[in-house]
Amino acid sequence: xxxxxxxxxxxxxxxxxxxxxxxxxxxxxxxxxxxxxxxxxxxxxxxxxxxxxxxxxxxxxxxxxxxxxxxxxxxxxxxxxxxxxxxxxxxxxxxxxxxxxxxxxxxxxxxxxxxxx
Length: 117
Description:
The chain has strands at residues 2-7, 10-12, 18-26, 31-39, 46-52, 57-58, 67-72, 77-82, 91-99, 104-107, 111-115. The model has no long low-confidence stretch (mean pLDDT 96). The chain is mainly β. Strands 2, 4, 5, 6, 9, 10 and 11 form a 7-stranded mixed β-sheet that branches. It has a 4-stranded antiparallel β-sheet with strand order 1-3-8-7, with no helix packed on it. The protein starts with a strand and ends with a strand.
C-alpha cells in the first residue's frame, strides 16, 4: 500500500554534489521517521541520515558536515543533499520510512550514486 520512489542519483566527480529525493505514495498517514541508507558491493547496508517527523536528525561521522537531510511532511518527501562527495560514497542509496502504528518499515528501490573522476 506504500511505495517509495527515489530520484536524483547519478555519476558525479569527487567534490561534486547530488540531491536525492524520495516521495511516498499510498496509505501514508503517520510517518515517524524518514531516512537514507546506502549499500556498496560487499558491504552491509548502513545508515546515512535520518530525520523524525519532529525534525530530529541523525547522521554518522562519515557524512556529517557534508550531507544534509530534510523533509517535507506535507508532501511525504525526504531529501538528501550530498556535498563534497568522495569515491567512498559510491553505493546504492535507499530511501526508508517508518510508517503507521504500529510502525512498519518501507524501502525504496534504490538509486545508484557513483563518485568517480
